[in-house]
Amino acid sequence: MIAQWFRSPLTRLACLLPVLTWLILSLVLIPTYHEAVSDIEGEVRNAIDEEILGLNQVYQTQGLPGLASAVDARTNDGVDRAALYLLTSSDGSRLAGAAMTWPEAVPLQDRQWFSVPEMSGGTLEGKVFIFVGGDRLMVARRSPIQSFRERLRDRLMLASFLAIATSGLLAAWVLGRYRLRLANIRSKARDILSGNLSHRLEPGKSGDELDQLIREFNQAFDEIEKLMEATRHVSSAIAHDMRRPIAAIRYQLETMSRNPQLPGSLQTQIMSLLEQTDESLNTFSALLRLAKLESGSYGPKKDRIALHELVQEVIDTYAPVAAAHQMQFRADIVPAYMTGDWNLLFLGLQNIFDNAINYGAIAIEVQLSIEKAQAVIVIRDHGNGVSESDLSKIFDRFYRASSARTAGGSGIGLALVRAIAEVHEGSVSASNAHPGLAVTLRLPLSRSA
User: Fold this and answer.
1) Which conformational region is residue 187 in: left (phi greater than 0), alpha (psi within -120 to 50 degrees), or beta?
2) pLDDT at residue 377 in the model
3) Rounded Cα distance, 381 and 364, in Å
4) Distances in Å between the alpha carbon of 141 and those of 82, 110, 130, 423?
5) Does residue 373 contact residue 429 with C-beta atoms inside 8 Å?
6) What integer pLDDT is reported at residue 405 of this predicted model?
7) What's the confidence (pLDDT) of residue 449?
8) What are the residues whose beta carbons fall under 8 Å from the beta carbon of 56, sequence distance 6 or more?
9) Which is deepest, 12, 42, 82, 416, by most CB within 10 Å?
């Protein structure tokens, strides 16, 4: 399921966009963070270097007493509260400054930079300067680097989180809209594939690439509908025009068959020809009936039908035929009522039963049940079934499965069943039952059922 979900390029884009956003932000913000911290640190150290340089000049001109006075003055004036000074003698005695003793963590090396934590939680950063006589000067600042680093890190992390979350939500929103549009397109496409060629995909108002593709598909469906209508018209016209001459031929053959002077062999051939002409006439009648159903010009009756009685009547009608083929019926029927045309539904079930008897074996199972306000009729034979490639095509007109090509029939029966189901707002499908073929007819129940 997850692998199938990730096959969609939109899904992959929606997942990759936050990752790419995080990667780009990392490549940009991490160097920016280090550069900003380095700049602040450089500013602090430059300020300390300038301070030490100024105090060293005082020492050069005024000596140690002058330096001590300058250190005390800068400590007491409060101008720079972040500054910390300490001047000691070579033996470590305090001479001037705010600190009482030399901090243990501060090294006793000349021109040595240090950065040590304070008890208050801050960071003390500074430099040690040792004079010629061994006197030591410590100039330090309560550095803003640590707090600056923490604030900058927190803000950059917050900005990164918001950017990633925004890109993720935006990608999910776009993906959701496209999935909704694609679901609508699939729904309409399924209607068209089921035979409703008058349906069309609905383009949006944005006029984007998907809308352009929908319009092109609709143009293709228009052409397909025209071709299908032309095919149906031709087949109906042929069926209509051919019925009269074939009926005339049948009349002549029937007249000849009544001649008592005909030899027996010729009589047999005429009877065979009569059977073939009857089959052709039945095919043409089925074609005309199918054309009326598919065009919508045939309005079925709206009678209340006891569907269980109709199914039982078809079973009773075909029971002797099944027995002649050494088959029997197994029925499981519950009461069900619907509104429709008894004769049409009887005809549809006849065609399904004909196939079950012709291509089945041993037994024919008939089940009538109720599922979600629908009557479900399942007719299963125990024959060889059909190939998977034939399964989706057996309800097309003139299509005959490979297993049936050597037998009789015109390939109209199941197409007629589908048309009868659709005119009753139902559906028909087929599946291999292993063994045999199961044909499922779904019909809407009447509201009072």
Assistant:
1) alpha
2) 92
3) 5
4) 5, 18, 18, 91
5) no
6) 39
7) 45
8) 129
9) 416
Cα separations in angstroms, 327 against 234, 319, 355, 382: 39, 9, 13, 10
Residues 50-61: pLDDT tens digits? Answer: 888 888 888 888
Pairing type for strands 83-88 and 94-97 reads antiparallel
Residue 263, preceding peptide bond in cis (omega within 30° of 0): no
Residue 4: pLDDT band with limits 50, 70, 90:
low
Choose between 186 and 246: higher pLDDT: 186
Whole-number Å distance between alpha carbons of 338 and 352: 20
Lowest mean pLDDT among 64-78, 81-95, 292-306: 292-306
Which pLDDT tens digit goes with each residue over 135-164? Answer: 888 888 776 666 666 777 788 788 778 877
What is the C-alpha separation between 34 and 38, in angstroms, rounded? 6
- pLDDT tens, 228-283? 665 555 555 555 556 567 667 766 777 777 777 777 777 777 777 776 676 665 55
Contact in structure between 403 and 393 (CB atoms under 8 Å): no
